[in-house]
Design a protein that fits this description.
Layout lengths: L1 H19 L5 H37 L2 H11 L14 H9 L2
Subcellular location: Cell inner membrane
Family: Belongs to the FtsB family.
Pfam family, one: DivIC
């Protein structure tokens, strides 16, 4: 009976050692879970960004309105016969006046 009790105690100690100190121990498991969660969040952001880019590509391929809007916003282009006005907000004016 004592041999059985000793064997079970030894087996329990061995399993506890592997759980806390051995390869793929509990602390590594929790660290990996945290890394997986961070990677999944990063992937979700990238998937959302890719979806927006896909929609923009479809929009650019399907018509000229998106191309025209992009040319106006990013390149400052205007159509013939149009007059371009730049409106400067109070914040920007104040910053320029005070040299900030």
């Amino acid at each position: 009976m004592k041999k059985l009790l000793f064997a079970l105690t030894f087996l329990l100690a061995l399993l506890q050692y592997r759980l806390w100190m051995g390869e793929n121990n509990l602390s590594e498991y929790f660290l990996l879970q945290t890394q997986i969660q961070a990677q999944q969040e990063s992937n979700a952001k990238l998937i959302a960004r890719n979806q927006i880019l896909k929609e923009e590509i479809i929009d650019l391929k399907s018509g000229t309105e998106a191309i025209e809007e992009r040319a106006r916003n990013e390149l400052g282009l205007v159509k013939e016969g149009e007059t371009f006005y730049r409106v400067v907000g109070a914040e920007l004016r104040d910053r320029n006046r005070f040299g900030h």
